[in-house]
UniProtKB/TrEMBL annotation, chains A, B, C, D, E, F:
Keywords: Calcium, Manganese, Metal-binding. This is Manganese catalase family protein. It comes from the Bacteria. The lineage of its organism: Bacteria, Pseudomonadati, Bacteroidota, Cytophagia, Cytophagales. Its cofactor is Ca(2+); Mn(2+).
Length: 300, 300, 300, 300, 300, 300
């Protein structure tokens, strides 16, 4: 079970020069083979399916902790997409002037036909994320090797998304994910080291270009986010530190386990888009709910 | 972001008469079009994509709360599948006597080829769950109508899964889901009532057979679980009560919003299956980790 | 079995300002999850699969009648796409000047590679329509609820297609479908009312924007097409009137059942596109067939 | 547009020795790559997309006529599947004794989970029919060659389905389809002959085994159904006879065009399956509708 | 088993006016339903699956020979795509100036996200090639008929790709494939003639436009490549000549079987694209390997 | 380009106790995510797409050599499936006694409906192999890491297939593939070692169970097949030895590069299955071809 927080791990700046096609490109980081839906679901299923948990608890705790974090990653990518798409067509309720005309030339028409200029579990070509992206063999060494590879593949994708889209909202998000994804790479490498004695962390970084080439990563690395594993749990997964420890392979600073989650920031409020009938429900206003709350003795 | 708990909403009994094909049938409730992956991802994306949240907060809170709960549902279905599959082939490390021979006639070979007798995001035919199952139009009335339909369709699937599999582990889980899913049906019906004034709750139950026909639902209904919406959050989504209120359409008892999650029960420990090399890592024992923990000053 | 007519329900105007991407956008109404292939196949399979037809005949007759109409809808959407695409590349048989060059930047390359600038059972992203879009649970209440939702979802899609494409050929077709689809919404709502006593028709319209906002709907509504259910059969499905009756939820005028089909209009003749080798067969002319007909005593 | 008839082309006998797996095997003839959904949709789209219709009308009329017939073929295969599945689980409303237990070992679980023991647009492996099965190049010679091949491939599938399933209901249906599909093979071969002068009909039969090896084909061939093309239209497609003429390649009897459809037989009434909540709606009886009809002056 | 040669069947000119969308269009010839992956895999599986090989050896030899050639076709199409994409984004290792910005508007984003501006087994819409494109019924007549149709469909696709893309690199490749694919059409037609006596070669060409309309085909036809079947084997498949013989249906020159493969040309060397971290490995230089080779006594 | 040999890498024994479901299980090794179609196509596309080949030639030569070998692996798995299926239904041309009745309960109906008891590019659940299984990022380190993981995942699949199926034909093939796949694991590990200095070969074996547990591997390992990389080329890829060298990580014996292919064994002749009309063509006999050959001066 989970407890959800209405907060994002970072504060997303308002987009400055976005286009619908930028949003389409970012979808690769959400619903692509190497997107956050894949990392989330791989580690989630591996944690559900872990055999011999008692004997191998610290490995389980690493996988389960990272699984917990990935939920926040599908969230932050989705919000970045949503912000990139907000305001991309002319607002208004009259359909006659064809307010959605730009959608006709947008690469990802589902953003307009299936959603109200918001995120969907698809990749940059509009192909749907699917469960074939989940690997859960049950052999610990093989699953860890997979996860190490998956995070490296995901890193390559993030680097390329950064090079495609220069909008600051997108880049802030990608910068953050590069740092945290980089930490996940190290975590799985460390787990393999514990298991096999081979210095897998020395393979890092894959691809070779350092996170330092991406300016948005700096403030996060200065806060040590590249070497802190959060448990994303109030009470559990705390034995992850038996594996996630020692020096970071790039800067040599100590790997740390932090109990709980990041503080985070409030989720952005998404403006209405009436030309998409979103959200509709025009007869309902906040005051109505505030009155109702008062009557029912609910805090508003 | 989320905080994860290493707990399941219910206690799953040890299976008594399971078969691999029972586990295959239950997969429909996990990765089927109307399975828990679908409910989880529909409400999760709808909450990320909600436009006009400030004005319509209580609707958002209902959707986000249920989204939070669904995570525990993919978890409990996965554990039920895992328990149904545990021990279904002969244990041992020697491949020569073909310990996996039963897999050849099992309907869902992925349970043996792709996982170590554990759950995967597939339906009962081995077709992978995919993002086309997510509906997120951004029009609140349409999304709520979808959710109401989705939960009714999911209810039909659960009823049929119950009628297929008589193992107590499976049925305990299905009974619980019928109660909670039934609560979700009511929640979306209530939301539509608030929005439109139409008495949608009177359509319940769909299909017509009552949850009372399923004995495993009783103890949960006696505890009021059919009429309590949990926020599955420490601090957020508490305005759900402005919508989720009034009498339950079947027994007239009051609908209630509860802040936070169920207490839950520890997750089952899944036995090793060496014939599947799961988990492998034979040179690692618990004592090693306990010694390490002692040295590092970590509680074990 | 069916009898086919070489006629369309409406007269499609010649496009004035179409582009290949307009045609791609309209494909969503043909092969999308909420397109006419979906409505056609849902009701068709539900009618084949109807259990207890004798007892529940009027419900069967409603579903079967609408299934019959939907065939004409895949037809009229296809013809609109075909007209939008006709003449979009330079005509001629010489490949050297690259007459299909515009296809390289068109969003939906299948219109040029797989067809000769004509419709295909794909959605606006070129994903193929598939049978997973068919819901046929066999529980009447659940199937009707699905159909009501499906038609509302389809309505949202039509509204958005209208807002994307301003060409008069496309809009004439969408206007007509909004009227007839709106009638289907009402029909399934009425069926649910008969079954449950809940005033489902009062949920209409979903989304909230009225058909009146779309000028092309007017002439059809003036002819009462928003409140007439055609049986699309010479002799069958005539008991639909036991369900489809009472006042229309929006204008209060009486719902009516009409036996048979609309008169319709001749199907447009699609010009040849020699650069696509379509249709080829240059050595064959009409005169040859007329002579042959004369000889064989067949009327031409 | 179409007019639908509540009739099947043949009378289906009650199954005698059916199993759920027989029904699964027959699904290949409905939703398989070479099933009736494919033939229906290929010819339907080719007829919508036909360029140069005026010049090449008789070819159009052949394709459109056969498209019309294929609707009745998806219908008759669906009904055969429905009959094969009717009564395959124990009837009753109590879920506790697991009335759907046989579904757990059935090859095609969707028949029980997604439908109420009825047909779905899937093939024998539960893979959904999809639009990639439609070929519509717009080059007449190529489309006809495709159709000739498609019908031969479909013929091979029917022959194998016959060899898999010995139930008389299934075989009556397959026998009929072999005869009519054989006629379609000849029709497309004749069309190619007209177009090219090559004696394509002499390639028949493909595969080499004659329809005569299948006893159920006899009565249909005695009635000439192997050499009669029906227009499946009241007024249109009558120029098909300019192409479909001459001697049948196997018995030398004359090919004929018949205007209109077969007389057909009433569709079977499918019994209720309460264990699947199908159709539910128990409070509604026929008498209620008869009374209502009386009051409303509608014939019942 | 195979022996691979590091050579292409033709020399590909350097592109002159390519765009990423040109490369996307050409993907249809690689991973489309009628692309070279399909022809390769159809004949490869048919050769593995051939029953009665001893009795029907010459037919087997024809299919196996063409299967061997198709490998070189996926290769040459891939290299054409790779050349068309080379240099399409700004080279450099600094991600900040968004060197991949053009990818955002490219139709096929996988070329940049999943590969380093190189080919993938997808079609022009980014849909993945899949095994459903393989037909292998085991009935020789039906398989040959399929292959004849497949090659004609592939020919139509090539003609259209030619008309879309005017870059000389693409057209050289398409011209070559038109010639060789045309030879395959004739080979399967001849095989059907041997089997049935029907003059299937007289159906050629399908579509009707001759290869002569494509100037790039000329030099290949002058070298007789339209009438020579290569065995693509050192010692095997030499009985193909018992079938592949007689006059070519278009120019009447003799069909010939040639033992072995074409001489071919060296494969192009693909330049590095550092902005895609491709290939990376910057610390490794050729000299290092040359020194190593010297030390190890390996020729470099 | 390739030269094909009509030979398999090993001699396949005649099956002794096979069932159609055994063949279905083995399909995972052909068309599964980790099957031989995947390894073949991954390395093939990586070799086509290799950037910077001149500088990094030895890496290219390793990948291209293994790509060459994988062709023989899809071949040997296909032949094993074909042999396992041969004779699994009653032979004869009369369809009336339902000779294909066993197909109704077989897990993989395509073996009977779509092929004549032969292999198809599907996995053990009948899902089609598709191009999404190909990874070709263009970053050498990432591609090698992928390949190392892919081979380990493939190894796990082979081990499980061995444990499922005890037929000697299947096990001979799996034993061989375990040895050769194990060699590929080492090759990619060595390549990563060259690139990074990390002792990746020490991770071997993954999963932990040694090939020695599988008796069929012994004779191949005794012949050194676990440590010999064949170039599968007459003249190319010979610089692979600059990477593939040093001691084998398990037995310390020297890694070797061998120019060319294995000698191999003749491919098995597959018996006819007349009940599947395979191959048909009954009027053609070998003598006819021998006579023809004599006349034409072709050696038979």
């Amino acid at each position: 079970m989970i407890l959800r927080m209405d907060r994002l791990p970072i504060e997303l700046p308002t987009p400055k020069n976005a286009s619908p096609n930028d949003a389409a490109a970012i979808q690769e980081l959400l619903g692509g083979k190497f997107g956050e839906m894949s990392t989330l679901m791989n580690y989630t299923f591996q944690s559900f399916n872990f055999r011999g948990r008692k004997r191998l608890r610290p490995f389980y705790d690493v996988i389960a902790s990272i699984a917990g974090e990935e939920y926040g990653h599908i969230e932050v990518v989705s919000y970045a997409i949503n912000l990139l798409l907000t305001g991309q067509t002319k607002r208004g309720t009259n359909p006659v002037p064809a307010p959605l005309a730009p959608a006709v030339d947008a690469r990802l028409s589902y953003h307009f036909a299936a959603s109200a200029q918001t995120a969907l579990p698809v990749d940059s070509m509009g192909n749907f994320w699917n469960g074939q992206n989940v690997f859960s063999s049950g052999n610990l060494k093989l699953d860890l090797l997979h996860n190490f590879f998956l995070e490296c593949g995901a890193r390559a994708n993030k680097m390329r998304a950064y090079e495609m889209v220069s909008d600051p909202c997108a880049r802030e998000m990608v910068g953050y994910l590069l740092v945290r994804g980089g930490m996940h790479v190290v975590a799985y490498a460390r787990a393999l080291e514990h298991l096999t004695g081979v210095e897998v962390t020395k393979l890092v970084p894959v691809p070779e270009l350092s996170n330092k080439a991406f300016p948005e990563t700096r403030k996060y690395e200065e806060n040590g986010l590249h070497r802190k594993l959060y448990t994303f749990s109030q009470h559990d997964y705390q034995k992850a530190g038996l594996i996630f420890n020692g020096p970071h392979p790039e800067d040599g600073k100590p790997l740390e386990v932090v109990f709980g989650a990041l503080d985070g920031f409030p989720v952005p409020d998404l403006e209405e888009e009436p030309q998409l009938n979103s959200p509709g429900a025009d007869h309902i206003d906040m005051q109505m709910f505030m009155d109702m709350a008062k009557k029912m003795g609910i805090k508003y």
